[in-house]
Each structure stands twice: as structure tokens, then as C-alpha cells.
Amino acid sequence: MKKTKLIFIYALVLFILCSCGHAPSQDITESATLSSSQTSSSAKESENLLTNESATQNKITSKNTTDPQSAEGYCFVTIDIRNIKNNINILKSEKKPFVTSDGYILKETKVKISDGDTALDILKKACKENKCTDNCKYCENGIQLESTYTADYDSYYIEGIHQIYGMDCGSMSGWMFSVNGTLSNEAVSDCTVKSGDRIDFAYSCNMGADIG
User: What residues make up the domain containing 173?
Assistant: First the structure.
């Protein structure tokens, strides 16, 4: 009887403990683990979403970014007188006001090209549409340009740009031009250019030996 009573009391204690919430500790642990797993999964989904959005944005940016130097329908023109600055001591004194401070009359500038345009056509457009790098008083209506036709060669050559002419800086000085880095042996009015070409008009003080 005494043993039966003890068993009853032990069973009663177990029942009370279960009623007070001490027994389902395993359920609580499983619930916490599930909650942690759900949180981790949500974090990963958010991270993946942000990564995908970032990749999409980068793709769009890459697609919409164009290099202006490769723009279709344009040439790129430079007018360079750095050789004059290097030989300023032999330049005619009356021409010194036309020498720009940085050695460029026009730094690389994009010019619209039309079918059949020659290097001279592009130069005319560049001079008409722009002013020199010093924005001087002589360029109020664009950069001065003079070219002359020669019947013997049925072509034009450049006499002067920005009031600087051949023979102004020595007996072997004058204007020359190159296309994509190669000095041209054609007349400026005979050299047909294409979209994307870089045309550099440079003043030489030594028959082209100081260019390139």
C-alpha cells in the first residue's frame, strides 16, 4: 500500500510539471530552430534579389553607356600649333598674338560628317562651329581659315588657320594634316574621310619632320 501511494505521488508530480510547461522543451527548441531557419531563408532570398537587381542595373548601364569617341556619323578634329611654341623665337613678331597659350587652336572636337566629305570639308565645319582654345577676340565668328585652289593639281591646300600662314615660322614651315595618326600625302581637298576618323591639322616648322 505504501509503495502504491508513492507511485501515485510520483505520477501526480509528473502531471503537475507537464501542466506547468516544463515538459514541452523539445517543441520549443524545434519552434526556435524553425524560426531561425525561416529567417535565414528570408535573408538569403533578399540577398539574391538585391544581387539580381544589381546585375540587371549593371547590364542596363553597360548597354546605355557609349563611348563618344566611337560615335557614328562624326569625325574628330584637332588643330595643333605646338611646334610654333617650340620655335617661337623664329615666328614673325606680328603673328605672336595668334599663338594660343596651350599650343592648340582647337583641341579634339567632334564634327558631323556627311557622305563624301573631305578633310577640308571637315576642317571648314570645325572652324565655323568653334572658337580657339583661348576664346580670343579674333574668333568671334569662328576660327579664321583660308585655303587656295591650285589649277596645276586641281585641288586646294591650306594657306592659313587663325591668321598663321606658311612661312610664318621659318622657310620650311606650313600646315600639314594626318588621318588616324598617319601623315597624309594627299591634298586636303582630295582626302575623303569616314565616320570615326581622327584628323589632326598641325603646323610644321620643318616640312613635317617635327610631326608625329
Answer: 68-204
What are residue 154's phi and psi, to 5 degrees? 50, 50
Q: pTM of the prediction?
A: 0.67
Alpha-carbon distance 69 to 175, whole Å?
A: 25
pLDDT in 10s for each residue of the chain, 212 residues: 444 444 445 444 444 444 444 444 444 344 444 344 444 454 455 455 444 444 434 433 333 333 545 568 999 999 999 999 999 999 999 999 999 999 999 999 999 999 999 999 999 999 999 999 999 988 989 999 999 999 999 999 999 999 999 999 999 999 999 999 999 999 999 999 999 999 999 999 999 999 97
Q: Do residue 144 and residue 196 come from a single domain?
A: yes
Residue 209 lies in a domain: no
106 & 33 share domain: no
Provide the number of structural domains found in the chain.
Answer: 2
Q: How far apart are CA 37 and CA 49, in angstroms?
A: 18
